[in-house]
Specification:
Number of strands: 8
Radius of gyration: 21 Å
Low-confidence stretches: none
Helix content: 25-40%
Shape: globular
Structural class: alpha/beta
Order of helices and strands: HHHHEEEEHEHEEEHH
Largest sheet: 3 strands, antiparallel
Mean pLDDT: 94
Distance between the termini: 44 Å
Length: 277
């Protein structure tokens, strides 16, 4: 997104556009948003509407958390750095998910905190926010989306802006969850972004840590690899492949989710299902 940003297309002052050229991440910064919400909303428009239209679907890796919860009741929490809302779409109770950097799939006023229905917000985005990528898809000029409570044009998806604090539940729940964790699964991450990466060294020494990834990560955080590793395990491979192998090993039924998966995940499930039979 930032590499292809074209500030000249965005509704902003010349000074704000120059700042975007120097620092493209300013389009999703707290300072810029409270000056004008248009850069954030115009850049995020296709992502917001894509989430509504379910262009992207949860994979086997996403559904594993729900299957673990449903089949064992042993899931304490999912901490996700992704803002795409896919973890929220698999049927897990909301209190089982901590969206560390927020989520596109929930909406609130950044000024007063008043919530807004996601579909209603998307209708506003579709009719009031111009499409800088394909101008024929939206209005010619962007119009404010105002909060029903405070009246300010500061309504947006509940993603964390640059310069804002992470959600309080990340700190509160991690402090509650980690001391009692007996298993920590680290899935599809580079472990370079803090403070989320602190979870791997905040669990007790007795906690088993399983890294499911295409490459080893987190060695500088204390994760061990190789025969000397005593409590760390590396499940090397694509996350969907690894989790499907685990699901098959556990004998969990997945017939009710296969049609909701993206094509790759469906193909993988059918192929491995045949191999299992």
């Amino acid at each position: 997104m930032y590499e292809t940003l074209r500030p000249e297309l965005i509704t902003a002052t010349e000074k704000q556009r120059r700042l975007m050229e120097i620092n493209p991440t300013s389009v999703v910064s707290t300072e810029m948003f409270f000056q004008t919400a248009f850069p954030y909303l115009e850049v995020r428009r296709p992502f917001i509407l894509g989430v509504r239209d379910k262009i992207w679907k949860p994979t086997i890796a996403h559904y594993f958390a729900r299957l673990l919860h449903d089949n064992t009741g042993k899931l304490t929490r999912v901490y996700t750095q992704n803002i795409d809302g896919l973890t929220n779409a698999v049927g897990l109770p909301d209190d089982k998910i901590v969206s560390v950097h927020g989520t596109i799939s929930k909406v609130a006023c950044e000024n007063c905190g008043q919530g807004m229905d996601f579909d209603s917000f998307c209708n506003e985005v579709e009719t009031k926010i111009k499409d800088i990528y394909n101008p024929e898809n939206g209005p010619r000029e962007s119009q404010p989306i105002r909060c029903s409570s405070c009246g300010k044009a500061t309504v947006k998806p509940k993603t964390v802006l640059f310069g804002s604090s992470l959600p309080a539940d990340f700190f509160e729940l991690s402090a509650q969850d980690l001391p009692a964790a007996d298993l920590l699964m680290v899935v599809g991450t580079s472990l370079v972004v803090g403070p989320a990466n602190s979870l791997v060294y905040s669990v007790p020494q007795s906690t088993i840590r399983v890294v499911i990834n295409n490459e080893p990560v987190g060695e500088e955080l204390g994760i061990g690899y190789g025969p000397e590793a005593e409590r760390d395990y590396f499940a090397h491979g694509n996350c969907d492949d690894v989790f499907l192998d685990l699901i098959n090993e556990l004998g969990w039924n997945v017939d009710d989710i296969i049609d909701d998966l993206p094509e790759y995940s469906q193909t993988l499930m059918r192929m491995k299902g045949k191999n299992q039979s």
